[in-house]
Each structure stands twice: as C-alpha cells, then as structure tokens.
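Blinded run. Sample ID left blank on purpose so nobody reads anything into the name before looking at the predicted structure. Input follows.
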Amino acid sequence: MAMSEARAPRQPATGVDGSPFGRLLKAWRSRRGLSQLDLALAVRTSQRHLSFIESGRSAPSRDMILRLSGMLDVPLREQNALLHAAGYAPVWRERNLAAPDLSMVNMALDYMLGQHEPYPAFVVDRRWALLRANRGAVALTEFLLGPGPAEATAEPVNLAVALMSAEGLRPFLANWAEVAHYFLLGVYVDAQADGAAESMALYDRLLELPDVAALAEGPPLEQSPAPVLPMLFRKGDTTLSMFTTIATLGTPRDVTLEEVRIECFFPMDDATARQFREWASSA
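Blinded prediction complete.
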C-alpha cells in the first residue's frame, strides 16, 4: 500500500541543531530511551553513520528511515512525518473508514460490535473520537444522559471528554476520581508513545476540566481488590458495575486502521448483565 517514492534532495549544510529529520529522529530515540549506539546496533548500521544522520551531515535513505521507524515503534502517521522531513513522499495511506476497499474492515468492526450485544461496545480513534457504537452502548448513554441530538453535531463525540466532564458521565460515575486517574494516565502514556501534538492537546484539554489537574498530581486514591478496575455507574436506584477491554486491529498498513480501537464493556455482576438484557429485549 506504499505510495510513490520521491527522491530525497541533497541536504544543505546544517548547524548544531541538525536537519529537520535529524531532530525528529533524535526526539524519537530519546523518547524510547535508546542511545545512538543502541539504535545503530539494532538497525545494523554504525554509530558514526547514525550520528551523521542526526546531525544532518548525511541524508538517510528511504529504507533506512523505515528501518529506524520500525525499530523505534513509531506510529504510521509519524513515520510519514519522518519521511516528509527527509524529503520523501509518505508511504502509509490514510483513508476514511467508508472507503470501498476497507469494506472487509467495516464488516469486521460491525461483527465485533454485534457479537458484543447486549453489552456496550464503541469504536473510537486514537484520540477517543467516537466512530460508531452498538445498541448496548446507545442504551447505556440514553439511560444516563437521555436521548442524543436528532441531528449529528459538527464535532464528533469524544469519549475521553465525556468521561471526565461534569456535562458528561462524571455525575453518574460513582468512583469517578479513581477511574479518571487511570484514564488520564492512559491518555498521557498515549501522547508520549505516539509523539503527536493532537494527543498531547487532548491531554491538556482534559487537564483544564474541573478537578482533573489534581488527579494528575497524586497517586491512585485507593487500590481496588478486584483484578480489574470497575466502572460503577449509578443513576437513581440502578447501579451498573462494568469493566472494559480495548482491542486494536493487527498488522495495520494504513494510518486510519492503526488508530482504530474497539472498547468493549463487560458486566461485573448478574444485576448489571440482567439490566442490559432487559434493555435489549424492550428495544
């Protein structure tokens, strides 16, 4: 699925800060905690050559960029950015999920959502923008928040913001502080892992919400005796106890597909399971 390759131009002489590509490479190497020698050995080149690439004294080949990116576990979107910084065309495509040649992926996503009924399941992107949901997810959100808007809004629903904000799910999450602490940590880890400005922007947006910044400064409020962290939703006399799993698509070769996540909610007690079955039977 590679796009056409552009020949890398000869890089001009650079100063102590190196070339645009060299600076990006050094940032990724530092983020992964590798020395120049460690990375050079991993990609089977010399430390001298890697030093010349980082300083801008040598221009990397396209193959070398992909080898370095793979060894550093750089996400596909950021691999394209590295290629662009070195003067090459992007390799990895980014398409809308509605593209005809992604029909088999859409079928797989719909199948997973359908098989998880009557329990909630969502498909989100890397920054938690909602892409689709099953009927169990709709039943849960309508029970907590009421029916959604009749017309689609310009900005997609962001599940991270919905979980953390007072206008979203926070008033109904009995153990909000504990759940929010771990969720915020996960968003931060994602931002550090992918190095994308958009991921850090989401983290900063969450920190601006009331009481959230304080969660980032301290340890978890309590240790749950359960093997997984429960999410305890409560409204009126109804309490729903659930935990979640997150799945990704294996061996993606497309930016969009690499960033897709499937979050599934599972009941932690019979009462919660029974409630979702009742909602499904009355739909």
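Unblinding after everyone has recorded impressions. Residues 165 and 208 are 10 Å apart (CA to CA).
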